[in-house]
Amino acid sequence: MGKKIVIIGGGIVGLSSAYFLQKEGHAVTVIDKSDITSGASFVNAGYITPSHIIPLASPGKIAQGIKWMFNSSSPFYMKPRLNMDFFRWSWYFHKSSTKEKVEKAIPVIKDINLLSRELFVDIKASGDLGDFQLERKGLLMLYKTEKSYQHEMEVARKASHLGLEVSELNTHELAAIEPNIKINASGAIHYECDGHTTPTEIMPKLLAFLEKAGVVVRKNETVTDVVRKNGKIHQVLTKKATYDADEVVLAAGSWSGEFSKKMNIKLPLQPGKGYRINVARDTGITMPAILMESSMAVTPMQGFTRFAGTMEFSGINTKIRKERVLAIAQGAKNFYPELTIEQDEIDAAQTGMRPVTPDGLPYIGKSASLSNLTFATGHAMMGWSLGPATGKLVSEIIGNKQTSMDISAFNPSRKF
Known about the structure:
Distance between the termini: 38 Å
Mean pLDDT: 94
Number of helices: 12
Radius of gyration: 21 Å
Structural class: alpha/beta
Oligomer: single chain
CATH superfamily: FAD/NAD(P)-binding domain
């Protein structure tokens, strides 16, 4: 018999959870404080990235953040501020940034990415969402310097050892694979295992399918609290209504940490703001790419090319820092010298908040204190890539089924 399930959050993780839960016959309600047309699920690079096996918390990252702390246009910006949650999170991040912990995380990140990649394929094959862009051209890691090359080759060797398809491209091979635009790079590492999509195409189609399938979607409705009794959540409260719940899924992205406090749960999480610029004219770019020295992503999407990037830790806010947007435009120019991003394209930039855990691994699993609460958050830059896998795992957790992979590394109660 199906359960009454309330999902807090309507991003890619929340909607993916709704997708798989309704397939299992549950009565699902999704509640989101927005109209579900913006945010991280809409402004990301659209990558499906088994190659992204190195977690954000890695050796040298904190030192890099401190170095860039007072440069608000830097790729990894940590705004100085007096905030105990941020200090605590930063300390946990530092403790997690060891070689040993990174090596332990690598196969787990690979496995969940591969699971999600296949689920994207399954969703498209089902016809539920109609047709949408889902390509497997791989991902180019474009580099200019020997230092960047050596850094990425170390990752590439690990990826290859794990069975992921990866190759090297020299300048001639790069020109052959991307012939319609000049690239100012010394070469590329080509992760053939990766894919890409258009988030602004998939999100509305997923939402429309869920509503047609009977999922109740409450937009522009803020969850304010929950009613707890005997170690369970009985009701979810909003400013507009009260919802009875057999099970609750917290998939509120960067807001998950703050909301967890209402349930007396400490969930170390910080919002990492990213930016995107869309160029809706022919750029000649046909291959997704990471511009290594510019620390940004480029994706050919349906009807436009997206330039996205930066990681800004400045608390929850939607302020667009012009210097960071300009840094993306200039970063693109450094690698594609014949391409100029116009002022109107820069002015139309948008931002989204990515929920970042101290160790770079998401929180997926049951709460230790509330037996009917499941966490599905903290995916950092891989939220889009891991959306379907997380949704599938959530449905298995709630259905008391064997999960598709070992999720112990994602334990929301883990120690840092």
